[in-house]
Design a protein that fits this description.
Elements lengths: L1 E7 L2 E7 L5 E4 H8 L9 H6 L3 H10 L9 E3 L4 E3 L9 E5 L3 H10 L11 E5 L4 E2 L4 E2 L9 E2 L2 E7 L15 E8 L2 E2 H6 L4 H4 L5 E9 L10 E6 L2 E7 L7 H8 L10 E3 L21 E6 L3 E7 L1
Parallel strand pairs: 6-17, 8-14, 9-19
Antiparallel strand pairs: 1-2, 1-5, 1-14, 2-3, 3-4, 6-7, 10-13, 11-12, 11-17, 12-14, 15-16, 15-18, 18-19
């Protein structure tokens, strides 16, 4: 299923994309039409947390032809939001998790060109999150080197600690897209990456949260990024240095993951920093991140 959070008439709602991809089914309104007993909560975060909610959404999706009226909303009538507009915890991120990107980054930053022996893990503030077509603030008072990073993101579906690689996929609710926007000057100035990654609006996410069963195992998805139509990044998640099971095993080692936690898996070669001269983002630039089977996340620098 393709799930989304969206605004309709000023109200934040969530729903399921129709089979023909033309509209969103307002999940709460559809449930009222189809069932005598309603169980759905008010947000996708709560759906992930609440036992039985995902099964109810599957039933709604399967009975799409029975849904009518104000429960079917064409995309022209809604404003898509990030699937989880206000995460409860910081986004967990993997750094230098594609070989060629690790080389381009360390070269540009004048660091030793060694591939990471262990996953590089940092976090990104919840206040970075914005939805599709929302504006990325340039923050020119603190940075002059804004960069893009196309990334597949994992959304955790159930609580777990010390999760093994063999069990990892069972803890995934679904996948979405994140643009891990980065202030390269702040990233270089500080020994940790939190500040350079956490400026407000530096975490575009969406347009859909695609359930795990719709993606398949292992995850092999094309990842691209375009700036003003120019293809900058073009790779596949099969080239991750540390794959998804390894990531989940690592970040859950002694640390409890909770439903709705978001993990960004890393970005491939082609970031603006890696060009000579660098191709950093400017006001008015349009950035599109596309991941196979998920969609296109589009944002503008303001």
């Amino acid at each position: 299923m393709y799930l989304s959070s969206f605004y309709h008439n000023g109200n934040l709602k969530f729903g399921v994309r129709t089979a023909d991809k033309s509209a969103i089914i307002d999940a709460v309104e559809a449930e009222k039409q189809l069932f005598t007993q309603t169980i759905l909560p008010n947000t996708l975060q709560e759906v992930i947390e609440q036992t039985g909610s995902i099964e109810r959404l599957k039933e709604i999706s399967q009975r799409e032809q029975e849904v009518e009226g104000n429960a079917i909303l064409p995309f022209s009538e809604v404003v898509l939001e990030a699937p989880i507009p206000q995460p409860k915890r910081d986004i967990i991120c993997l750094g230098l998790n594609y070989r060629e990107h690790a080389m381009e980054y360390t070269t540009a930053m004048e660091e030793e060109q060694n591939l990471p022996e262990y996953p590089i893990v940092f976090t990104k503030a919840t206040t970075t999150v914005i939805g599709p077509d929302q504006k990325i603030k340039s923050h020119r008072h603190v940075t002059s080197k804004i960069d893009y990073e196309a990334e597949l993101a994992i959304v955790i579906g159930k609580e777990g600690t010390n999760i093994s690689k063999e069990e990892a996929y069972d803890y995934i609710f679904g996948y979405t897209i994140i643009n891990d926007v980065s202030a390269r000057d702040l990233q270089k100035q500080h020994s940790q990456w939190f500040l350079g990654k956490s400026l407000d609006t530096f975490g575009p996410m969406g347009p859909f949260l695609v359930t795990e069963d719709a993606i398949g195992r292992p995850v092999r998805l094309d990842v691209q990024c375009r700036v003003n139509g120019e293809l900058r990044q073009n790779s596949n998640t099969e080239l991750l240095i540390f794959d998804i099971p390894t990531i989940i095993e690592t970040v859950s080692g002694g640390v409890t993951l909770k439903p709705g936690d978001i993990i960004a898996t890393g970005t491939p070669k082609g970031v603006g920093l890696g060009f000579a001269p660098p191709k950093f983002l400017n006001e008015g630039d349009v950035v599109e991140v596309e991941i196979e089977k998920i969609g296109v996340l589009r944002n503008i620098i303001s």
